[in-house]
Amino acid sequence: MEFPQLRHSSSTAQILSPLYTLPLGQNTLNMIELRDYLGRTALQLAVLGEHYDCIQLLLEKSRMDVIEEGLLHAIKTENVKICDMFLGHPVYSNPRSRLQLDFHHSYYEQEDNSSSFAPDITPVVLAAQCNNFDIVHMLIQKGFTIATPHNYFCFCTECYNHKNFDRVVHSKSRLNAYRGLASTAYLSLSCDDPIHAAFELSRSLQKLAEREKEHKNEYRGLSEKCKNFAVDLLDQCRTHEEVMAALHGGTDTRDLLRIKMAIRYEQKKFIAHASCQEHLASMWYAGASWFQHQNFPIKLVLVPLGILFIPVTAIVYVFLPYSRIGKILKSPFMKFMNYICSYTAFLVLLFLGTQLSSFKSVHLFNGTEGVVNGLIMFYVLGMFWAECKQLWEEGVKGYFSQMWNYMDITMLALYTAGYSTEGVIYTKTRGLVAADNLIHGDAHWVPTKAGE
C-alpha cells in the first residue's frame, strides 16, 4: 500500500511535531487516538515515517490497543529498532496487560473495521509470516507463541462456537496460524528439534489439504515448504560431523531413528538428498567397503560361496559377536548378503523337499527327506523368531503398518499349518503301519501326505 503524504519525511514531521507541545490531558489523549482518512493513528504514522522520538512520546500516551496495532505495523515494515521500542513498553511485561491484549485478538472482535489486520493476527503470527528472524526471536523471548489449531473434526465448545459464528473467519484464522507455524524463522527458533517439527507439521498439513478442500492448494504449499525447510537445513551441513548431527539429532550415530522418521512421514526429498544418501551408503558398506567397487560378475559369484559358508558365519555371529569377523558380519550389507544366501538355501531345501515327497518309499521324518524337512522346519522357526523380534522392536502399531509383514505372517502360518498337519497325520497313522503293510503288501510303505 502506498502512503502519499509520507513520501517526504519532512511533511510527516510537520504533522507529528505539534505532539511535543501538547499538554497531557484527556483532550490530548483523544487527539492522539484520532485517525486520518485512511484509518491510521498518529502512532502508526510515526512508525511508517520512522520518527523514533515521536514513537517514544506516543507510546507513553496511547492505549493498549493502539500500541498493539502500532507494533503490528512496525512488524510489517520489518523495522527491528521500532519493534524493540514497542516490546520495551510495560504493557508487554505485565501479565495482566498481556491478557487484555489477548482479549483484543479475540475471535469475536469483528466489529472494529478501523484496524488494518484481522483480529486473529497476533504480533508473532505476523512476524512469522514475514519470516523475520530478529523480530521472531524478540517476540519468543517475550513469551509470544503460536497456538496450534485444534483438530479439524474437533467438537469442543470453542470450535463449535467459532464455526457457528462465522465459518469463513474460522477457516481463515486456522490458515493464518498454520502459515505462522510453517515459517522458517518460527520453526528454527521455537523448536528444539526443527527437523522433527517440520516432518510432523508437513504431514499434518498434507492431511489438512485433503480435508479442507477450499484451502487445498495453500495447505499443500505449506506442506511443501516444511519439506524444503528440512532439506535446506541438510544443505547447510558442510562437514561429516554436521551431517551426522542433522541425521541423528545428536543421539547414537549407529541408529537410524531420524531416517526412519523421514520414511514414516514420507519425506522423499530429505531421504533423496545427496548427504543423506552418502551417509546411508557409508553405513551400508561399513566393514565391507571393498565390495562396493567390485564388478557384477564377482558379486554374483559371492552368493553361492555365501551359501556354503552359512554354518560358519552363523556360528561366528552368535558365539563371537565382538571379534573382527563378527563386527564385519554385523554391518547392514553383510546382514543383507547373509539373508540372501540363507533364503536361497531355504528355497533349495523347499525344492528338494517337494521332489523327495513324490516318492512313496521315503518317510516324512526319516532318511533323506527327514533331514530336509528338519532343516526346513528349522528355517521356519528362525523366520518366526525374526518376526517376533521385529514386532518387539517396532511395536504393534509400527509392525502392522507395513503391508509386507502381513505377507510374512501368512507365509509362516501356511508353513506351520502344513507341517503341523503332516506331523499329526504321521503320528496318528504310525500305529497302523503293520496293518497297512499287510493290506498293501509293502513293508516300506508309510503314509507321508495328508491325501494318502
Automatic annotation (TrEMBL):
<keyword id="KW-0472">Membrane</keyword>
<feature type="transmembrane region" description="Helical">
    <location>
        <begin position="371"/>
        <end position="388"/>
    </location>
</feature>
<keyword id="KW-0813">Transport</keyword>
<dbReference type="Pfam" id="PF00023">
    <property type="entry name" value="Ank"/>
</dbReference>
<feature type="domain" description="Transient receptor ion channel">
    <location>
        <begin position="154"/>
        <end position="216"/>
    </location>
</feature>
<keyword id="KW-0406">Ion transport</keyword>
<dbReference type="GO" id="GO:0015279">
    <property type="term" value="F:store-operated calcium channel activity"/>
</dbReference>
<keyword id="KW-0175">Coiled coil</keyword>
<dbReference type="GO" id="GO:0005886">
    <property type="term" value="C:plasma membrane"/>
</dbReference>
<dbReference type="Pfam" id="PF08344">
    <property type="entry name" value="TRP_2"/>
</dbReference>
<keyword id="KW-0812">Transmembrane</keyword>
<dbReference type="GO" id="GO:0034703">
    <property type="term" value="C:cation channel complex"/>
</dbReference>
<dbReference type="InterPro" id="IPR002110">
    <property type="entry name" value="Ankyrin_rpt"/>
</dbReference>
<feature type="transmembrane region" description="Helical">
    <location>
        <begin position="340"/>
        <end position="359"/>
    </location>
</feature>
<keyword id="KW-0677">Repeat</keyword>
<dbReference type="GO" id="GO:0070679">
    <property type="term" value="F:inositol 1,4,5 trisphosphate binding"/>
</dbReference>
<feature type="coiled-coil region">
    <location>
        <begin position="198"/>
        <end position="225"/>
    </location>
</feature>
<dbReference type="InterPro" id="IPR002153">
    <property type="entry name" value="TRPC_channel"/>
</dbReference>
<dbReference type="GO" id="GO:0007338">
    <property type="term" value="P:single fertilization"/>
</dbReference>
<dbReference type="GO" id="GO:0051480">
    <property type="term" value="P:regulation of cytosolic calcium ion concentration"/>
</dbReference>
<keyword id="KW-1133">Transmembrane helix</keyword>
<dbReference type="InterPro" id="IPR013555">
    <property type="entry name" value="TRP_dom"/>
</dbReference>
<dbReference type="InterPro" id="IPR036770">
    <property type="entry name" value="Ankyrin_rpt-contain_sf"/>
</dbReference>
<keyword id="KW-0407">Ion channel</keyword>
<feature type="transmembrane region" description="Helical">
    <location>
        <begin position="301"/>
        <end position="320"/>
    </location>
</feature>
<protein>
    <recommendedName>
        <fullName>Transient receptor ion channel domain-containing protein</fullName>
    </recommendedName>
</protein>
